[in-house]
Structures are given as structure tokens and as C-alpha cells.
Amino acid sequence: KMAADTSVEILQKVLENEILQTTKVVEEHLDAEIQKLDQMDEDELECLKQRRLEALKKAQQQKQEWLAKGHGEYREIPSERDFFQEVKESKNVVCHFYRDTTFRCQIMDKHLTILAKKHVETKFLKLNAEKSPFLCERLRIKIIPTLALVKDGKTQDYVVGFTDLGNTDDFTTEALEWRLGCADIINYSGNLMDPPFQSQKKFGTHFTKLDKKTIRGKKYDSDSDDD
């Protein structure tokens, strides 16, 4: 028992020492930065300010370019031909393959509308799967809804049904944002190692496995393209 206590104490001391060392390094770094600023003359400060302004101007210019290409809003495109044109002119594209009769597509629409406004760096589109048989076959889209995540004109990843989103119809916009962040199709500022829906697990099996549900008298399966 005493030996165990001693080893715990040693471990604690080592940890405390590590934390102190880290804090010291951070403080030293900050001190150096402050000192650097203090020692700057007016010309150098002016130069720094100009660089900061340039960066802001560039970011604003980039945003305007994205908006001109149809970013910033969630749009429906009429045909397969439009899909190729749209993905050619934007680096990051999320395209929702939907069907009017599939209830879950409406759930997806709601979240994508929010994310399109928030993530102007990415283009958010929807395309009717029934009007795009060639694309659906080429991209092997069998389940509706499916999101095709296109980077530099190439489809890199898919979000198929709601499996990756906590396997529930009640998934949050944050859960979808996290999943798109994992695919590096949006600039995600959260922690990718910490999915926002993990806390839902405490509610039991409802979130891990979805049973058949009835909506408007119709039965549908979790992640099925049958209504």
C-alpha cells in the first residue's frame, strides 16, 4: 500500500513539474512577443498594421469571389450538366442527392441551409436523384439522402443516410458540421476528435440503433432509399 502511495505521489510530482515547465515556456514565449512589440519602432508597427489590413482585404475579396460563384446559399441545380459546371469552378462542394418523396431529405435540407450561410468557403447544392440517373450510377449513389463531397472536381467522400450523424433523425446541425469537417470540405473550428453527438449515447439504444418508424402512415428503414 505504501509503495503504491509513493508511486502515485511521484507521478503527481512529475505531472505538476510538466505543467510548470509548459506554463514557463508559454510565459517566456509571451514575454518575448511583448518585448518584440515594445522594441518595434513606428515604421515597423505601421508595416505590421499594413500587412494585417492586406490580409483582411484579401479575405474580403476571397469572400466576394465565393459569393459570385453561388456560395453562401443552399441552391438546387436543375440538371446533371450543371453539376459538372458547378464543381469545376469551386474547390469545395457539398451536393445533396435527394428525392421529393423521401422525408429524410427535408431534414437534410434544413441543416444544409444553415451550414451554407455559415461556411461561405464551400458551395452547397442539391440535385434531384431521379433527374440524374447517369450521375447516381457513376457515383454509386444507392441510398437517399446521400451527400457527395467534391474537392477540386473529384468526389472524395460521401455522407450516406444518417449513419455517421448519430444514427437518428434528430441529429444536430453541429453533428453534420463535424462530419463535413472530418472530410476537410469545410473550415471546421471545433475538435474533430470530439463528435458533438457522443453525449447522446447516454440516452440508450434510441440513438445507436433506429427502429422502423412510421411517418405519415408510411414505413421507412434507417438509411434506406425505400419509403
- pLDDT averaged residue by residue: 83
Bulk shape: flat
What order do the SSEs take from the amino end to the carboxyl end, as H and E?
HHEHEHEHEEHHEE
Helix fraction? 40-55%
The assigned structural class equals: alpha/beta
Distance between the termini: 63 Å
CATH superfamily of the largest domain: Glutaredoxin
Instruction: Tell me the radius of gyration.
Output: 25 Å
- The number of helical segments is 7
Give the spatial strand order of the biggest sheet: 1-3-2-4-5
Pick out the low-confidence regions: 200-227
* CATH architecture annotation of the largest domain: 3-Layer(aba) Sandwich
The CATH class of the largest domain is identified as Alpha Beta
What is the total domain count?
2
**Beta-strand content estimate:** 15-25%
Largest sheet features: 5 strands, mixed
CATH topology of the largest domain: Glutaredoxin
Function: Significantly diminishes the chaperonin TCP1 complex ATPase activity, thus negatively impacts protein folding, including that of actin or tubulin.
Keywords: Cytoplasm, Cytoskeleton, Nucleus, Phosphoprotein
Organism: Upupa epops
Subunit structure: Forms ternary complexes with the chaperonin TCP1 complex, spanning the cylindrical chaperonin cavity and contacting at least 2 subunits.
Task: Write structural notes for this entry.
- It is built from seven helices and seven strands; from the N terminus they run H-H-E-H-E-H-E-H-E-E-H-H-E-E.
- The protein has 227 residues and is of the alpha/beta class.
- The chain has two domains: 9-66; 72-183, 3-Layer(aba) Sandwich (Glutaredoxin).
- The termini are far apart.
